[in-house]
């Protein structure tokens, strides 16, 4: 079960300009996955070895390093490839979010993994205080980039994580930490409030790409299991009900893939600050979010009891997909938003065809 031919996420071995990058990311992800197989826990641990390789190859800050010449397409290939192998590194947070926002604010980031802590804050003009909750991978970073919403606008700055963190994790075990801050107001820089909306848009886009990678991995594990598992003298894949389940899973994933392909292509052509990209990401978030439940349910049904054990790798992908679906806005939130966009358009058909 592989991607349809062509497109950003083509895995059929077709030679194109991105084939070398796909192979590199796939090899790195596979090696990292195999090295930690049987040793994955909740909460999950930062994969320092994989991160070191990503930094050495330039993949850790692919789009936020200006002279790399990379864009959303290359980042999507990397995010997707690592998600297919459950890579435990904050690549989206470091590159697409913190790296980009720091460039916009004129802030130089330290080396190593980075993340963005978004929070509402109180200020008396001299100090800014608040708590950023569910910050991805904060414990793996020496500093985080704060994006603080206060009554006088959006402010960005660096904050240390050592003594002001409360650890937590999402359903998949990925770190989601709370950070309390109390900083001098002049330690933060005022930026255009529109950057806050783009930050969320970028996060939603990255999660759609990563979810697609996780769903593809769950589908491949399901195909392999049903071919290998023998029942009543035949492999499970020989039973019509199983074939129908696999076909339904494939169809659901391909609908999600089409929406994510659109979001990647639109971001590549127009940038993340474009209304066309905003619409495409909204569509992708709805389509991908609605694919998560049926795909993960069928995957576990086909695996039976073994699929819910810690020893089997299926949970690494199904729980990530379920967790990521709510990041940067739930499916319901984006479905309502899509409805408002359609109602606000003079002609809803123009909204669809203009992207």
Strand content: 5-15%
Can you tell me the overall shape? Answer: globular
Major β-sheet annotation: 7 strands, mixed
The count of helical stretches stands at 10
- The whole-angstrom Rg is 21 Å
Give me the strand/helix succession.
HHHHEEEEEEEHEEHHHHH
Strand order of the largest sheet: 5-6-2-1-3-4-7
Structural class designation: alpha+beta
**Mean pLDDT over the residues:** 93
Low-confidence stretches: 1-6
The overall strand count is 9
Spatial gap, N to C terminus: 29 Å
Fraction in helix: 40-55%
What do you see in this structure?
The chain is globular and about 75 Å long. With 355 residues, it is of the alpha+beta class. The chain has helices spanning 19-36, 48-57, 72-83, 91-105, 194-228, 240-270, 275-303, 314-324, 331-344, 348-353; strands at 116-123, 127-136, 143-150, 153-160, 165-166, 176-184, 189-191, 230-231, 234-235. The relative contact order is 0.11.
